[in-house]
Amino acid sequence: MLELPVYLDNNASTPCDPRVLETMLPYFSSMFGNAASRSHAFGWAAEAAVDQAREQVARLIGAQPQEIVFTSGATEAVNLAIKGVFETYTAKGNHIITCQTEHKAVLDTCKHLERKGALVTYLPVNSDGLPDLAALEAAITPQTILLAFMYANNETGVINPVQAIGAIAKKHGVIYLCDASQAAGKIPVNVLSDHIDLLTLSAHKMYGPKGVGALYVRRRDPRVKLTAQMDGGGHERGMRSGTLNVPGIVGLGKACEIAQQEMAADAKRLSLMRNRLQEALLQIEHAYVNGSVEHRLPHVMNISFKYIEGTTLLMGFNKTIALSSGSACTAASMEPSYVLKALGIGDDLAHASLRFALGRFTTDEQIEYAIRTVTSTVQQLRAVSPLWEMYREGHLADSASWAHP
Ligand SMILES: *Cc1c(COP(=O)(O)O)cnc(C)c1O
């Protein structure tokens, strides 16, 4: 029996793997000690668990355990990285280069720093969602202190040329921050071969618990220094004060260990499912995949069905499929996804987009259900859509835009 709703929103959050939960549980009860308590066995047990997790996280990304700083998630890690660099390297300059398709954690942190004197370049992307590396290199000035380019995009799954970006950063002596929240544990990530100086990841995007993440801070060649954003007991080598979330950190470590062992097999299985889904949905008239299909995470597909709104489609699924649309309704307006807009996708197609994000627990049966449901819902909605009718009768120019309520 297929259980509904089918969950295909794994880029928003993944379920906690039962093996991860199992590993965490003792740290809520018998092993409840504070990892900073140096005078008794409760503290030592907690510290040992944190040390092991630090090794597990480091191993997944090719880092050293001393280079891992635990945080409350990727948002905090990004804030610490960008603000920490900006405050430390003021003598060198105030220029940051990032990209229009970055996550809000990066963009809003940069916007915040613009009010504090930072100069930020927001590079555009091409229709595949990829930045122009020549334009990136040309944007670097002697005042540039940081490049912030994600590993893989959360909305489209598009994978950046991380190694090439890292090489440019290294050549110009600029620090490279890579938000790997969607890539870590899904595809191979290596801070050494990718020339990454700062890297962020989040447990709940890789089958771990919510509210815990990590920041990798390179210790040599070059040694990156950060100004702490949280003052207190000097935890995490002074970079992030606050009592460590031991159960969460243990969960993140276990999630990294499992990912390292299983990501190749998961990626292979999920890419087959994703390709099956893509092939089937492209049978629908006027369906378009958004972003590069070549440089893309194996489990992600963003697709638009012209002449229907994503939110209407979601309602049409009648709560049987859980996924996201690039059409976000805010209080006063209908703002299509800024990521899709940056790819040059028109408002109509951006509003008509759905993001399918498969995960470790997605089954073939669920994919077949999604194919049937999406196909029939698109057909039903178009049958009653005045826009579709006008298009059929040839009354609609290609650029027809939505009349917003
Ligand atoms: C989810 C996500 C974040 C934020 O991570 P949290 O741990 O939820 O704060 C940042 N960047 C990207 C690309 C993400 O997908």
UniProtKB/TrEMBL annotation:
InterPro entries, sorted: Aminotrans_V_dom, Aminotrans_V_PyrdxlP_BS, Cys_deSase_IscS, Cysteine_dSase, PyrdxlP-dep_Trfase, PyrdxlP-dep_Trfase_major, PyrdxlP-dep_Trfase_small
Post-translational modification N6-(pyridoxal phosphate)lysine, affected residues: 205
SUPFAM superfamilies (UniProt xref): PLP-dependent transferases
Location in or out of the cell: Cytoplasm
Record-annotated Aminotransferase class V domain positions: 6-369
Keyword check for tRNA processing: no
Domain of life of the source: Bacteria
GO biological processes: [2Fe-2S] cluster assembly
Active site annotation, chain numbering: 329
Coiled-coil zones: none
Binding site for pyridoxal 5'-phosphate: 74-75, 154, 182, 202-204, 243
Oligomeric form and interacting partners: Homodimer. Forms a heterotetramer with IscU, interacts with other sulfur acceptors.
Protein name from the UniProt record: Cysteine desulfurase IscS
Protein species of origin: Chitinophaga eiseniae
The encoding gene: iscS
